[in-house]
Design a protein that fits this description.
It contains eight helices and no strands. The chain is an all-alpha fold. The model has no long low-confidence stretch (mean pLDDT about 90). It has helices spanning about 15-40, 50-80, 85-110, 115-140, 145-175, 180-210, 220-240, 245-275. It folds into two domains: about 1-140, no CATH class; about 145-285. It is globular.
């Protein structure tokens, strides 16, 4: 395995990430139960209460829960800098993310603005603490392509959070949205920015190390994250114009660039897998 640049002594106590990992499947089960209960109604509209509830159970309760736990465990090792007071950080972020997600889902399902208001405040607290803790690590670390990608993923999470809080405030307090494009930009930054860039950045280190493959091409590791972040930024500016003449082409160009870049990244990853020296089949990898 290629372990150069890793500092395993910086890993937090195992109880810190495990609380996130053990909670995530419960939210996935709740999402599955809602899917069974509502059935075809979930596909009537992306804005139906049940659809919004299921989506946020999966994205906040399951995906973000796992990603937050993984970052508290892996980022100190990859970056070589510890989490400040990891148990305190986890004791704030984990319950805030859990309770905030449940309140948000209940607010959607039962159309209760008060629940949405509490959810907004609690999620802002939990994810805000997580962002501060992550930025604290990144500010004390040595620069690598993985750290750079994770830094941009963290910035994308901050954008996703701001957009989500704005959408939530609109629903809870009846505030008019500054632009309808926020409804599309929120999932775009969450999936293509926060999730995609984090997966790519960690893959630079993890795929060669565990699968014993060649390294990712240098041109990809140096340019992928910044290109994606720039494309998302330009797409956001274009969509903010709400369909004004000329901006639609920039929006379409950015969408095609983002889609093409992720397809390219996936293709290169599969090609590296084909060249791996670890031949034992392992579904966990």
């Amino acid at each position: 395995m290629q372990q150069a640049g890793l500092d395993f002594k910086q890993a937090p106590p195992i109880s810190v990430p495990f609380r996130f990992f053990l909670t995530a499947p419960l939210f996935a089960l709740l999402a599955a139960a809602l899917m069974l209960w509502h059935g075809d109604d979930l596909f009537v509209s992306r804005w139906s209460p049940a659809t919004l509830a299921v989506v946020h159970l999966l994205t906040l309760g399951c995906m973000t829960m796992v990603m937050a736990g993984a970052m508290t465990q892996m980022l100190p090792v990859l970056a070589g800098a510890p989490v400040d007071r990891p148990r305190i950080v986890a004791a704030i972020v984990h319950p805030a993310l859990s309770v905030g997600t449940l309140l948000l889902v209940c607010g959607f399902l039962f159309a209760q603005p008060l629940l949405l208001k509490f959810a907004i405040a609690i999620l802002a607290l939990g994810l805000g603490v997580f962002l501060i803790a992550t930025l604290s690590i990144l500010s004390r670390t040595r620069p690598t392509v993985t750290v750079f990608a994770v830094a941009l993923a963290t910035a994308a999470l901050a954008v996703t959070l701001v957009l989500g809080l704005t959408l939530g405030a609109s629903r809870a307090w009846g505030i008019a949205l500054p632009s309808l494009s926020l409804r599309d930009l929120h999932p775009a930054w969450g999936l293509m920015g926060w999730t995609g860039l984090l997966v790519a950045g960690v893959a630079y280190q993890i795929v060669p190390m565990f699968q014993i493959t060649p390294n990712y091409p240098r041109w990809l590791t140096r340019g992928f994250a910044s290109t994606m972040f720039a494309a998302l930024t330009m797409m956001s500016i274009a969509q903010w114009q709400d369909g004004r003449m000329g901006w639609q082409w920039l929006d379409l160009l950015c969408v095609c660039l983002i889609a093409g870049a992720y397809i390219l990244f996936a293709g290169i990853t599969l090609n590296l897998q084909r060249q791996r020296r670890r031949r034992l089949a392992d579904v966990t990898l």
